[in-house]
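Appendix B: complex inputs.
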Amino acid sequence: MISTEELNLLLTDLLDWYGYDFTHYSRASLTRRVDRLWNLEKFPSFAELRYRVRSDATYAQRFVEGITVNVTEMFRDPSFYLALRNDVLPTLTAKPFIRIWHAGCSTGEEVYSMAILLRETGLLYKSLLYATDLNPEVLDRARSGIFPMAPLRQYAESYRLAGGTRDFSDYYTAHYGYAKFSEDLGEKMVFSTHNLVSDSSFNEFDLILCRNVLIYFDKLLQEHVLTLFDRSVGPLGYLALGSKETLKFSSLQPRYKQLNNEKIWRKIG
Amino acid sequence: MAQDWLTQPHPVVVIGGSSGSIEVLLTLLPGLRSPLRSALIVVVHRRNTADSTLSELLALRTRIPLKEVDEKEPVEAGVIYLAPADYHLLIETDFTFSLDDSEKINYTRPAIDVTFESAAAVYGPWLTGILVSGANADGVNGLLAIRQAGGRALVQKPETALVDFMPQQAVQQQAFDQLVDVDDMIAYINSL
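Resulting structure:
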């Protein structure tokens, strides 16, 4: 297992050489991720792992992708999407234009889930979905709209639990173990790299989704990122987090009102 | 990882199990002394939904405070913590919990191995891992890590487990210090 000191050296290298700042990420999870890559690549020693990261920019990019968690799914936590469908989107219908930001979108499954909701509520034509992640490689996959078939049966069930009434398979065509989602869903998506640690606010949004990203950050970085979101949510806009994340104990709390029991907050002040 | 056991004031017990483990907990919890001098962390394989039914069910069986873990929460003696569904549960070197939604390990999230291994690195000899009934080999590697870090590994006697595969795997891999039944677990935890 990598030691605390070795991990600190690696994180300093990633910051100094490549500008990726992981120093405020939760260490227990990072330690596991780095151990996994170390075993996978069979580096005989820490020194060789470190040398590879420092000397090989292509590998360093893969390493960054490997230590960040890129697990995502469509319609994860169906009740959350049901609340978006029934309680959030109806309040945005009067707007001439709807801007949504998926921060830390990974391979894009949530962005496609949102596009399906917008399509079914008749709002997609006037919406723009900004999807950002720090890994360019996962954004390429997200942009393609092609996802593995294996979990689709579960996605279809989650879609139904999230209030979906169509035949889920209408949204994609299957090819050799992959599902290609229809291109008109992707037309309103803009994919771009953005690092929540170091990049700033770039627009004003009606809804920001950042689910299961903050759990990887320490409290200081959580507050920093929440402040960034606060500056990016328009008046009466929404901020949505993962099922174990909260605005409670943050400086935003007094100015945001939580929707029922869902991890969705509306900016009221 | 930096270990600073001298500042760690209380023992920690992590119980892991899969099929048949709820039955163990329903017998174990009523037998535990209140207040509890250790922290008790429960990692069981459960359905993939964030429902609170399991914590409510377990809380009915004990006067000890029992809660589903919130991320960044400190690990405290006298509390029973339940790993939330759909997240791996880890412990930081400052004795706080953290959550991780990375890939399933041993086809499951939370994985017992993840919590055992992470707690072993932080608590060393202060940690006891208990592996009970289940139909999966999750937890065995974690018990080995606990023993290697100087902690103690207890395994439910396979003949007393509703599903004996999991304890049987631990026995085969020599991943235990002692085989126990539920009464032994109660006596052990109460003695800490």
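The helical segments of chain B are 21-28, 53-59, 112-123, 140-148, 165-172, 182-191.
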